[in-house]
Amino acid sequence: MAEKAQDDKALGRASSIDEKHQYQGEPDGSSVIAGSEGVTEHELATLRHVADRLPYTAWLVVIVEFAERWTYYGTTNIYNNYIQFPIPKGSNNGSVPKIARLGNTVAGALGKGQQKSFAIRTFNSFWVYVTPFVGGILADTLWGRYKTIMIFSIVCLIGHVVLVASASPASLENSNTALGLLILSIIIMGLGAGAIKANVSPMIAEQYTGKLRKETLPSGEVVIKSPAVTIQSMYLWFYAAINFGSCGAISASFLARDNGYWVAFLVPTAIFVLVPFVLLAGRKQYVVTPPRGSILLETFRVIGFALGPRWSINPAETLRAIRRDDFWDPARPSYYGEGQVPAKITWDDEFVGEVGRTLNACTVFLFFPVFWLCYSQIDGNLGTVAAGMTLKGTPNDLIQNLNPISIIIMIPIFDRVIYPFLRKKNINFSPIKRIYAGFLVAGLAMVYASVLESYQNKLTPCRGGEFDKQPAACEIDDEHAATPLNVWIVAGPYILVGMAEIFASITSLEYAFTKAPKRMKSVVMAFAQFQTAISSALNFALVAVNVEEKFVWLFGAFAVSSWVVGTIFFFTFRKLDRRESELNAIGQGDRDGFAGEAAETTTGAGKA
């Protein structure tokens, strides 16, 4: 997955795993690396690393994710118009009458305004990224990942049916009834989608069981088939499936405009019916991880045992205690005398080491809420900006589909051209550097948005006279007032955020999978996704400033925050590049011995 920083450069290798520092063998490098298929240290250091073939079952999981994301984005991407704007004149289902489609009239239904729309959409994002913990617990304790995905796909389908009902003409006769059904559907679908999300991303990587090995290409070149590079490639294509699915919102925008919202919500519901059937099609071929006990709950218990003796009225004293080398000792069975181990301790010392090492590595994710704050602006606020531009029949919520489209175009370029080129040129673009690049590009997207909105405010007809205090996207004569700016100018932030996702979001998926021991992958993935929920909670605090009159400063503040936090992130974690292979080895199969040994030497919650 990741390249090891300076050692790889010295070896002339920008490999994503540097096991040379992990397995010290013969001085001439002739020792075979443990767990590999005859690969020596010298070969690992000198041969080019390439991705292996992806198994058939991995592509089935990709299809599941594609269908699930189509239904998610095919509904949420039109929530902004659905909630914010009223039903156009002459419509009973939210669609735009044919006579008005070439103008600036936008589809709408509930007419609740920008702030209520923002609050509901933010709650939806918060909820869907909190519920992965539910899926993680159930997968680890009762059902395993496969069965958990299957059960919650049915739950999600029920939520979609309720959503379609909320948008029927009969429901829209009373906007409060429709709003109540919408919120109910959000709760049900969020529970299902979140539980699926915690398990589908680790499940896809588990389908690959290959080992480090040599292979001769048709050209005669001998290369290393690297599991880590394979995982990197796998998650790139997994993310491509997410964005192929999110392109479902393209059809949703036109369906809502031309046929009403119940039709726009019905199509994703019909597509979601595919999910259980695809899961059943591969049930005998999937690499299935059975439930292994209460891993998530035990993780919290380990943390609780370690924290218990450290609390103090003085916060500084508590922080010093947490950073002590013996922080984890009270959670280790070996800490207690024979026969005195508390009954609640049901784990061994190695598990405590895994918890400590995994938490240390996964503090990386704590910086991501700021990144997701930038991303959240393309979900609705930029759609509001687009509504005040010259549309010429283009649905304003159609533009946001440029984000997934740009990702789909860029992923093959990064996977087949850019990343292999960097490895070939010995340029070490490690996970930490990639994530940092994501923060920088996300900040640049917000600068673009802020400058665009500032210029838009100068051109809008919603200023002066009776419109003096109106936002840029006000209505004049029952139609959205338009500036001379073409709506496609707003494409810039969507494309830049897409590039930022390739750098930061995809890398976070790799990081969550490779840094977690086998028995804690759902835990770590849920924690990584929980950062989006934290971002949504922060957005709740910003509801008062999420009005168009303040967009210029809002976007600008997010840009500065992304750059500052990203820079702090880089200088905080850049040393992790040197421990990349060590962190990848935590609790991994043949390397358990190494992981256990390292866990004994890695104590103290404050160590990286």
UniProtKB/TrEMBL annotation:
<feature type="transmembrane region" description="Helical">
    <location>
        <begin position="150"/>
        <end position="172"/>
    </location>
</feature>
<keyword id="KW-0812">Transmembrane</keyword>
<dbReference type="GO" id="GO:0016020">
    <property type="term" value="C:membrane"/>
</dbReference>
<keyword id="KW-1133">Transmembrane helix</keyword>
<feature type="region of interest" description="Disordered">
    <location>
        <begin position="1"/>
        <end position="34"/>
    </location>
</feature>
<feature type="transmembrane region" description="Helical">
    <location>
        <begin position="261"/>
        <end position="282"/>
    </location>
</feature>
<dbReference type="Pfam" id="PF00854">
    <property type="entry name" value="PTR2"/>
</dbReference>
<dbReference type="InterPro" id="IPR018456">
    <property type="entry name" value="PTR2_symporter_CS"/>
</dbReference>
<feature type="compositionally biased region" description="Basic and acidic residues">
    <location>
        <begin position="1"/>
        <end position="23"/>
    </location>
</feature>
<protein>
    <recommendedName>
        <fullName>Peptide transporter PTR2-A</fullName>
    </recommendedName>
</protein>
<dbReference type="GO" id="GO:0022857">
    <property type="term" value="F:transmembrane transporter activity"/>
</dbReference>
<feature type="transmembrane region" description="Helical">
    <location>
        <begin position="359"/>
        <end position="378"/>
    </location>
</feature>
<dbReference type="GO" id="GO:0006857">
    <property type="term" value="P:oligopeptide transport"/>
</dbReference>
<feature type="transmembrane region" description="Helical">
    <location>
        <begin position="398"/>
        <end position="422"/>
    </location>
</feature>
<feature type="transmembrane region" description="Helical">
    <location>
        <begin position="523"/>
        <end position="545"/>
    </location>
</feature>
<dbReference type="InterPro" id="IPR000109">
    <property type="entry name" value="POT_fam"/>
</dbReference>
<feature type="transmembrane region" description="Helical">
    <location>
        <begin position="235"/>
        <end position="255"/>
    </location>
</feature>
<dbReference type="InterPro" id="IPR036259">
    <property type="entry name" value="MFS_trans_sf"/>
</dbReference>
<feature type="transmembrane region" description="Helical">
    <location>
        <begin position="434"/>
        <end position="451"/>
    </location>
</feature>
<feature type="transmembrane region" description="Helical">
    <location>
        <begin position="178"/>
        <end position="196"/>
    </location>
</feature>
<feature type="transmembrane region" description="Helical">
    <location>
        <begin position="487"/>
        <end position="511"/>
    </location>
</feature>
<feature type="transmembrane region" description="Helical">
    <location>
        <begin position="551"/>
        <end position="573"/>
    </location>
</feature>
<comment type="similarity">
    <text>Belongs to the major facilitator superfamily. Proton-dependent oligopeptide transporter (POT/PTR) (TC 2.A.17) family.</text>
</comment>
<keyword id="KW-0472">Membrane</keyword>
